[in-house]
Amino acid sequence: MSDDANNDAHHVPTDPQERRRAAWRSAKKVLSRPSAQHRIGEQLTHLAAHAGRVYDLDASTDIYGDGVVEELERRTARLLGKEAAAFFPTGTMAQQIALRCWAGHTGNNTVALHPRAHPELHERSALYEVSGLRTVHPTGEARLPNADEVREFEEPFGTLMLELPLREAGFVLPSWEELTEVVEAARERDAVVHFDGARLWECTPHFGRPLEEIAALADSVYVSFYKSLEGMSGAVLAGPATLIDEARTWRHRYGGNLFQQYPAALSALIGLERELPRLPAYVAHAKGVAQALVEGFREAGTPWFRVHPEVPHTHQFQVWLPYGADALTEAAVRQAEETGVALFQRWFTAPEGPPGVAVTELTVASQGLEWSAADVREAVAGFVGRLG
After folding, report:
1. What's the Cα-to-Cα distance from 34 to each of 138, 228, 267, 289, 366, rounded to whole Å?
2. In what side-by-side order are the strands of the sheet with 348-349?
3. Nearest residue to 340 (alpha-carbon basis) of 25, 37, 20, 29
4. Maximum alpha-carbon separation in the chain
5. Please, which residues have CB within 8 angstroms of residue 174's CB and are 6 or more apart in sequence?
6. Helical residues (DSSP H) of the chain, grouped into ranges
7. Could you report the per-residue pLDDT of 321-359, keeping only the tens digit for each?
8. Which residues contact 233 (CB under 8 A, 6 or more apart)?
9. Could you read off the pLDDT of 23-53 as tens digits, one per residue?
10. pLDDT digits (tens, 9 = 90+) for 137-161
């Protein structure tokens, strides 16, 4: 263990957030280690070590979106099979601009989406407050709308937005047949289709289709680089050239045409080269981890638990337990501090369900591939034993 890791292990911060960070950073065994848990020096070292493999480092730095940013846009458009693409500093900006542009094209400012989609929960009503858009919900079920719900919805809408996967419902996906049918239903209503594909990269195993074929169903697609691909930040909006040209104009108006973005662009290119090919392995291993969790909770005599989906659709899924969120988080932190094993991280009060139930999200990445089913069951026993 490094000196820094030893310092984390032996000095316990008094601030709860810093204590959590120190515990998870110093843990030797984790299912994933997001980029946000690394130190600045580690991130810079990683960037310097790999950037030369994805781009010519003797080239000039980008200025207002040229150079390496343009190269990232070209590569992403090609991966998604779209005519053009534009890089944005945030996915929130990319998606808001896409939806306002489509409203102008269709003449209808109503967007049909899930009530637990990202714009409805995490953007402070920006679709309405900034762009004057109105949202409607074809379904309230913990899944994306189906074709009948879209076809029979009682009022017109100009754009159907589908979040793939739907994170808040448990990173769930429809079947390929269901997805194609709901897209066709939107077309029958003369609506355009936009994919919130922040985590689209890891959907290919579930659908059994390449990225290009999945993206071809939608008129436009947004993808993120800092989630599954471990980039620093940033997103791309891909679609027809006319839409992307207009989106670039709005990007400037929103203040998103930054002077230089080469660190984020290089880290995104590294993610496309290194992480994207590995995602199917993460998805496959997540299924084994989920099954081992079920076995572990049963062996530990846990009175009630939920692994959702029971067979994960991607490399991310939820775990629900009948305890307070603070008690579960404390048990997770203690396990990491005392054993160096971080099975779970932070827990949250479940937004739906009976009182006293909490939920957490699990991600299986490269570090998780080292876990056997026995490792998972042992970690569950240690975690449950710390619940008092």
Report:
1. 34, 9, 14, 18, 11
2. 306-308, 316-321, 358-363, 348-349
3. 29
4. 62
5. 143, 144, 146, 182
6. 3-10, 16-26, 40-50, 68-80, 91-106, 118-121, 126-129, 147-151, 176-188, 204-207, 211-215, 241-253, 262-274, 279-299, 325-339, 373-385
7. 999 999 999 999 999 999 999 999 999 999 987 889 999
8. 89, 90, 225, 226, 264, 267
9. 999 999 999 998 888 899 999 999 999 999 9
10. 999 999 999 999 999 999 999 999 9
Tokens of 127: 């679709």
Q: What is the pLDDT of residue 10?
A: 55
DSSP letters along 219-273, please? SEEEEESSSTT--SS-EEEEE-HHHHHHHHHHHHHTT---S--HHHHHHHHHHHH
What's the token pair of residue 126? 């920006």
| Residue 312 pLDDT level (bands cut at 50, 70, 90) | very high
pTM for this predicted structure: 0.94
Angle at CA 39, nearest 5°, toward 33 and 44?
Answer: 105
Select from 157, 118, 122 the least CA-distant residue to 138. 157
Sign of CA dihedral 379, 380, 382, 386: positive
Q: Could you read off the pLDDT of 227-259 as tens digits, one per residue?
A: 999 999 999 999 999 999 999 999 999 999 999
- Written as six digits, the tokens of 218 are 């939608």
Spatial separation of the C-alpha atoms in residues 57 and 51, rounded to whole Å: 7
Tokens linked to 35: 């980029």
How many residues does this entry show for the chain?
388
